[in-house]
Amino acid sequence: MRLACPHCGPRDYSEFRYGGDASKQRPPHGTTGHGTGDLQTWHDFVFLFDNPKGPHLEYWQHVLGCRRWFTLTRNTATNEVGEPK
Amino acid sequence: MTFRRLPSGGRIDRNRPVGFTLDGKRYRGFAGDTLASALLANDVTLVGRSFKYHRPRGIMSAGVEEPNALFTLHDGARTEANMPGTIVDLIDGLTARTQNAWPSVELDVMGINQLAAPLFQSGFYYKTFMGPTKGAWMFYEPFIRRAAGLGAATEAADPDRYETRFDFCDVLVIGSGAAGLAAALSAAGGGGRVLLVEQDSALGGGLLSEPEQDGWLQARLGEIRNASNIQALTHTTAIGLYDDNMVVLVERHDHRQPDPAKGQARQVLTMLQAKAIVFATGAIERPLVFANNDRPGVMLASAVRTYLNRFGVAPTGRAVIATNNDTAYAAAFDLAAQGVEVIVADSRTEIPADLQRRNSIEILAGTSVVDVKGKNTLHAVLDGAEQRTITCDVVGMSGGWSPVVHLTSHGGIKPVYNAAIAGFVPGGFAKTHSGAGAVMGTFGLNAAIREGAAAGGGSIAIAAAGGEDRPYAIVPTWMPPRRKGKAFVDFQNDVTAKDIKNAHQEGYHSVEHLKRYTTLGMGTDQGKTSNIIALAEMAELRGLPIEQAGTTTFRPPYTGVSLGAIAGRTIGGHFRPTRRSPLHDWHAANGGVFIEAGLWQRAWYYRWAGDTPESAYVKEMGLVRRGVGISDVSTLGKIDVQGPDAAEFLNRVYVNGFAKLPVGKARYGVMLNDDGIVLDDGTTTRISETQFYMTTTTAQAGEVMSWLEFLLQTQWTDLKVQVASLTDEWAGMAISGPKARAALELAFPGVDVSDAKLPYMGCLDFSFDGVPIRLLRLSFSGELAYEVHLSADYAISLWEHFLKTGASLGLKPYGLEALASLRIEKGHVAGLELDHRNTLDDLGLGKMAGKEKDYVGKALRQRPMYQAPERWSLVGLELLEPEKRLRGGAILFAKDDKIEGHGRGYITSVTWSVELGKTIALALYNGGLKHVGEEIVCAFPLKNELTRAKIVSPHFIDPEGKRLHA
Amino acid sequence: MSKYSAFSLARHALDPDLPWPRAWRSPEPKASYDVVIVGGGGHGLATAHYLAKNHGITNVAILERSYIGSGNVGRNTTIIRSNYQMGANTGFFEHSLKLWEGLSHDLNFNCMVSQRGQVVVAVSPVQMDVFARRGNIMRLNGIDAELLDRGEVMKLLPYLDYSKDARWPVCGAIHQPRAGTARHDAVAWGYARSADMAGVDIIENCEVTGFAIENGKVTGVETSRGRINAGKVAIAVAGHTSHVAKMAGLRLPVESHILQAFVTEPLKPIVHHVVSWGAELFYLSQSDKGGLVFGGHIDGFNTYTQRGQFAKIRDVAECAVSLMPFTSRVRLLRHWGGIQDMTPDGSPFICKTPVKNLYLNGGWCYQGFKATPASGWTYAHTIANDEPHALNRDFSLDRFEKGNELDEFGIGNWTYKQ
Ligand SMILES: Cc1cc2nc3c(=O)[nH]c(=O)nc-3n(C[C@H](O)[C@H](O)[C@H](O)COP(=O)(O)OP(=O)(O)OC[C@H]3O[C@@H](n4cnc5c(N)ncnc54)[C@H](O)[C@@H]3O)c2cc1C
Ligand SMILES: [Zn+2]
């Protein structure tokens, strides 16, 4: 598989580090200021996955290159990779 | 059966004789021979014994599909088992041995398995060896294992060298038959970089066995040589197609006898990124299934032709050609031309007229070979329209052709059945792929050339070959005629047509069930000659058309590939990178003994203190507790954090506050993961309003760096902060002990390091002899201690400077073992406690967490069981029985507990305490410090030890921190 | 119905035309069953066997979208062991190993359970302590374990790299003599045959495409072969867990990842144990047929394609050659991938779901093969009693809410790092 780093261009996937599902919204910082915050929201964010068979928006880092984190859509049924953002 | 070398002809180099041995006996062949062709030329026809029944076997094919003629090559550490003789280039001095037979292939004792053969039906293992008792298999298994397996490997390390590389090209052409050559030339006409790969030792594919087309072949090879943008590689196999057009190639150099001492690689693996791929992989001939079709001397018809035309090896007298299609006639005509008497048994009742026109051979239409008898002389039993038994030297069989769709299938496109050629062809292609020639089911030479030219882009015309294509016709026959005697489908695994019938009866219908139940296609030949036959037979048994019976999966690699080639040079000492501190060379030269810690090599202890770690670390600890020592902490992660929002950023990632940290001050911080588990700890120093200097643990440096980058680049993009790793650029050394300040004063005269100027958790940046120094007053050991950080380039100079100036104080280096032991005495947590399962509270650090502010992990650390009072949390232990030992990994029990189950905790780290004069430990214990003062039991059943210990505070020394502040 | 034995083999040998009976029937689906099991892998088939054997429930169908055993049960590296240290894992996997020990007898099908022992090689003194903790817990739970020093490892595994060149030294090992391998396909077929004999319908080429749910209770499934009603529905679809659960409206702590496996040419016996390595995730054994069977870590990003990345293949080959230098000259014959359902903590689910009468078995990560008997055993209990067995109580969906993760290897909550 080849991924296109937005900074360096297409590279073998072994240069990258996977960062998981990027469609999930991280609960905004500051919402757990006092007390426990919304445990359920955090639980769902950290532990639950859509895990679709098809297009999947995800994080990658060009960890052995420029270290840029970016997102791209990959089809998990075919590993076809879309353009990075 | 008898074979001989013809006085002339073939592509061998008769001026270069080559000597080799088989089972110790000497033979001669010529350069250009394969081991198989040379053996045939020497009339060696019995070359192996089969896997299960130990039936005598000969050479069946002339290529990678060979199921029978497997040899063990070379000796000693270079021993290589299971090599098909058909793909081994003959080199001078080659030693080969036959396999799976004892004492010899002629007199194989295990041949008695043939008598028990009726027992060994498919699935036989599943139905027996279950009694008399439950574990009976453990009794039978060793016998079965010894009988199974083909050749024997050596336990010795491989002395040869392998390389891996990346490469790129515009067009990759796989296969150098007529279609591949045309494709490569045509693609080269387009101007791009073309790579043509061929697994065989020469370019030409099937044309190497067709002397009449040699003119065309030589002309094209000349053009290829002259094309500056074509690279043609022989001995190179495309083993697999991976995502995004990566094709893996393996080039073998054995024929050049590479010398590892000269850096020559035995094999080179290339990860090739191709913009376009032309598959011109050809087709493999199938055997016919009839009784005793495995007798030595029964060969594929195309192989008979190859041995004749390419290697100049021919049967001496008579040949029977058994076929259901047209292609076998080429072998028949060529044999006849050499004076061999040829009888063709063609199972078809109608035979194309143009084949019958030639009268050099006898053709029996509607007649099949149904059995072959005899041991040294073959007797082919014919049945059908004609019934006779013919004594002959060789039976050449052709059951049709199977296109080599392996590689195209690796990409996920299933092959489809083409009834016209009775074979599977690619079921389509990805955008940048195309196919040409026999792989497409195109068997006409000129049609293949045209197809190749088109696949290569069609930018230039490719000359046609002589003669006209004739149509290909086949009337497939799959099932054997009903006769007594084993009719083999998979020769290597001894799978017969009867086995397939059994599998069908028992309901193992799907192709995969069939393969797994009978082991069909699981041999070194990967079922190249057998899979399609078996599938067709199963379809017939089920009464289904072949296209409905499914296809088989083709798993990479296309042919077996040495693990060494895949691993390349990333093995042994180069298996993973070795990281060394900038002070490494000093340690090595001055009595430092190293230990592997993750990727790092760290100074474990120094010889000045002792010759074993056990004796040395205690002395080094004493040095720090009573005097002053210096230790290399360069492996710590070091991260420069800068920007107007740097303080806010750190305040979010650490559980404790960093927003108000004054400039010039350091603070110990702990980070959590989102789930509330501790990620890492370390100290971070505020250099200026907008700049911080963070250190992380050695183990987590990479993780923390990526995590910070992730948060800044994708989550909190509004924060104006940059991070940069200084881990490799900077070195660090700890100066610890009551005399540490004195050592600094001696080392940095004129720099005020007084407690007032540089209090505990203070930071001083200054320049010494022109070198920027960052001096931090931190302590891991609990003593008065400092860390000095500076550019790695000056690390050794400064280190030596410290040793020199500190000599009068007795300053000496201490290693990792002492460092880790000192921190136990102090009760600092480290890797063994930060094991990704523990919360802040488990480590006794809950109080650090900010109440008001938000930080990463704050919500989920409050999950109910993370807050449960009975969680295992950090305690100290003191050994109560001095004659015994505490050990890491011991399981803890309360005094009156039954010693079983999971206990109430475990010991993470143990040391001898120089200060207390006893063995102490850190542990995690149910309820933690609530139990201080209690006596507990440490169980280490692996050594049958039960040891009493007392729970104490983990801060064994100086709990008030007086020394830190001294 | 015919029992397999040396005697029956001999009878068939003497009379080659005597047909063997089918190992399992190929029935048409009925309109309704008491229990419908989705997925004809090891776990689904084992569940049917124990539903019949332990609970007398036989009006059961197993619906398999392809052929039985087409999934991971027929793709794994066949290692069975019970060296688990975290809470519920220890008892569960030991129960499984005990069931393995009697499995061939129980099923009258030789599953070739080979207790040749597993040796996990430690590469540092610290790792020896970590292994010791595991071994001590095993011993304290009645499970066999022994600590080996370097010299003892040299005797057992003479072919490892003990040279100065080795990147990491062999410091010692932990050994579980009762661990080993089993013939994976035989496990699927043996359970299938036994369940079939008990009256269970095994329906191949039948894909579940939806669930009928009324008032929060499941009443049946939609399939590629029509609607089938069911009193209870039990999911056991391994790598497809999320996909199938989604049809019932469930979102799970599961991601699907590819794990690759490898087999070499057959060799005469040379590796007599299951050998694993503490430097990186790597495990190897030699099959009865003679091939070296091995594997490593998942590729590391979620996917449903069964095609592995070559970079991972290199990683694994590097491990093989570095740990066992002789393997350099041994040829790889096949490699393939299976889709695993990875959970954040690496541990599975055998539990009830928020939908009444719908049960979940999944999240097996690397370890589902060795779990097969106990998984079927406890899942059958959970289905029959609508309540988990003590052994699987902690394998619940709500453990992440509670903070009751079972992170056996201390990797942290990441599906793709587990
Ligand atoms: C390469 C590899 C190596 C492994 N090695 C080991 C090992 O050494 N030891 C070990 O303990 N474990 C190992 N495992 C893990 C183990 O194989 C799995 O965890 C286990 O097999 C999963 O359970 P199962 O057998 O029920 O799964 P599967 O055999 O995958 O069964 C699930 C079945 O569900 C079917 N299915 C899916 N969707 C539907 C639908 N909608 N309708 C109907 N049917 C459906 C599938 O076709 C499949 O047959 C390995 C896994 C892999 C991939
Ligand atoms: Zn980049």
Automatic annotation (TrEMBL), chain A:
It holds the Pfam family SoxD. InterPro entries: SoxD (IPR006279), SoxD_sf (IPR038561). Residues 16-37 are annotated as: Disordered. This is Sarcosine oxidase subunit delta.
Automatic annotation (TrEMBL), chain B:
Residues 484-569 form the SoxA A3 domain. It holds the Pfam family Pyr_redox_2. Residues 874-958 form the Aminomethyltransferase C-terminal domain. It comes from the Bacteria. Keywords: Oxidoreductase. Residues 583-852 form the GCVT N-terminal domain. Residues 170-413 form the FAD/NAD(P)-binding domain. Transmembrane segments: none annotated. NCBIfam families: soxA. Belongs to the GcvT family. This is Sarcosine oxidase subunit alpha family protein.
From TrEMBL, chain C:
The keyword Nucleotide-binding applies. It is found in: Cytoplasm. Residues 34-380 form the FAD dependent oxidoreductase domain. Transmembrane segments: none annotated. Keywords: Cytoplasm, Nucleotide-binding, Oxidoreductase. It holds the Pfam family DAO. InterPro entries: FAD-dep_OxRdtase, FAD/NAD-bd_sf, SoxB. It comes from the Bacteria. This is Sarcosine oxidase subunit beta family protein.
